[in-house]
Design brief:
Elements: H1 7-24, H2 33-40, H3 44-52, H4 59-72, H5 78-85, E1 90-95, H6 101-116, E2 120-125, H7 130-142, E3 147-150, H8 159-165, E4 170-173, E5 182-185, H9 187-200, E6 206-209, H10 216-231, E7 241-242, H11 248-259, E8 267-270, H12 273-285, E9 295-300, E10 313-316, H13 319-334, E11 342-344, E12 347-349, H14 352-355
Parallel strand pairs: 1-2, 1-3, 3-4, 4-5, 5-11, 6-7, 6-8, 8-9, 9-10
Antiparallel strand pairs: 10-12
Length: 358
């Protein structure tokens, strides 16, 4: 008589099936879910739940598992996972341009946060063009992304709120809008730090290269700066606040306008580092020395800032961390958890572009 399968045999099949699933969910570097579980000191099933939806797993344990996954380079196979969950495990990401080192660094964080939760990020460049932005959003949704991370939110369009109304999980990163979950630097505080630094150096006539008026980054950095001056009883002349693109050429053109004023400013705050580099170029073209003749400060503290011939004073923002936390929050929203906006604390890095005259 043929023997019937026993429970033990069924358990063996389950174990074999589990090993197959673990293999399918392995990253290309050979790291498996079992490796992550061992590193985090938990059972494999606990590690699986922590990386999937966190159900029944304490927050501290889930964080430990995700950190192990990130450090080991473990990535869930999205095709295998989608068969079990019905999700694509894809996150759509929109940025103005990945050639911008700030946005590229934010995106590195997004990729890391997505991978730690078993998701993959799909990025699209929009050039900060509203029509392109809408077209790229619909294209990503057609790919069945589970949610969207917008790094190009604009204050002059309703796209983000429309997506929220459609039930699309949306998180903003770098820029913020009222009523939409966002992960940003505290730009108001960053602007204030620059103003306090300038005032401590005795600068009363100052200029601002304020960025684009549709971006919260430029608006809030400028507001933090001008509010601090107003509070000190030294209001900034509105004619000395110039909107310009967030790039070297925009900063250069704006600086030439500021330098043509009489009297010219003794200090200029540019709301991002590349605009600040443009300001420094305009000063050199006018036979002026940054830090001696006119103080210059930027924002974001990209690696290049400290390596310039005259190192640039800049506000450091945690760009990669913002991206990683934003991705984790979006995954939580997709999987039914709530998410709250967060503003990250900036730090002023003082260098020779403001203090060389001391």
């Amino acid at each position: 008589m043929r023997r019937q399968p026993t429970d033990a045999g069924g358990s063996g099949d389950a174990r074999t099936s589990g090993r197959i699933r673990a293999s399918r969910d392995s990253a290309e570097n050979g790291v498996t879910l079992a490796d992550v579980a061992a590193d985090a000191g938990v059972h494999q099933s606990t590690a699986s739940r922590a990386l999937r939806d966190g159900a029944g797993v304490g927050s501290a344990t889930a964080d430990r598992v995700r950190e192990s996954a990130r450090r080991l380079g473990y990535v869930v196979n999205p095709a295998a996972s989608s068969l079990r969950t019905g999700r694509s495990r894809l996150l759509g990401v929109l940025v103005p341009r990945l050639t911008d080192i700030v946005l590229a660094t934010v995106y590195e964080g997004i990729e890391a946060g997505a991978a730690a939760a078993g998701y993959q990020a799909v990025v699209a460049n929009t050039g900060d063009d509203p029509a392109v932005q809408r077209a790229k959003v619909e294209r990503l949704l057609a790919l069945r992304v589970d949610g969207l991370l917008l790094g190009d939110a604009r204050g002059d369009t309703e796209l983000a709120s429309e997506l929220v109304a459609r039930g699309v999980p949306v998180v903003l990163v770098s820029r913020r809008l009222r009523g939409v979950t966002s992960f940003t630097c505290d730009d108001l505080v960053g602007g204030r730090l620059v103003a306090e630094h300038f005032m401590a150096l005795g600068h009363h006539r100052v200029g601002v290269v304020a960025g684009e008026p549709y971006a919260s980054t430029g608006v809030e950095r400028t507001k933090g700066f001008t509010d601090a001056y107003a509070k000190a009883g030294i209001p900034v002349d509105p004619r000395m606040i110039i909107n310009a693109p967030f790039d070297v050429h925009g900063g250069e053109r704006a600086a030439h306008r500021l330098l043509a004023s009489d009297p010219r400013p003794t200090a200029v705050f540019a709301v991002n580092d590349f605009a600040a580099i443009g300001v420094m170029g305009a000063l050199r073209a006018s036979c002026l020395v940054p830090g001696h003749d006119v103080a210059v400060a930027g924002f974001n503290d990209v690696p290049l800032s400290a390596q310039l011939p005259i190192p640039l004073t800049s506000v450091r923002s945690p760009m990669r961390d913002m991206g990683e936390r934003a991705a984790s929050a979006l995954v939580g929203m997709i999987e039914g958890r709530t998410a709250r906006s967060r503003r990250f604390t900036p730090e002023l890095m003082v260098r020779a572009s403001t203090t060389a005259a001391d």
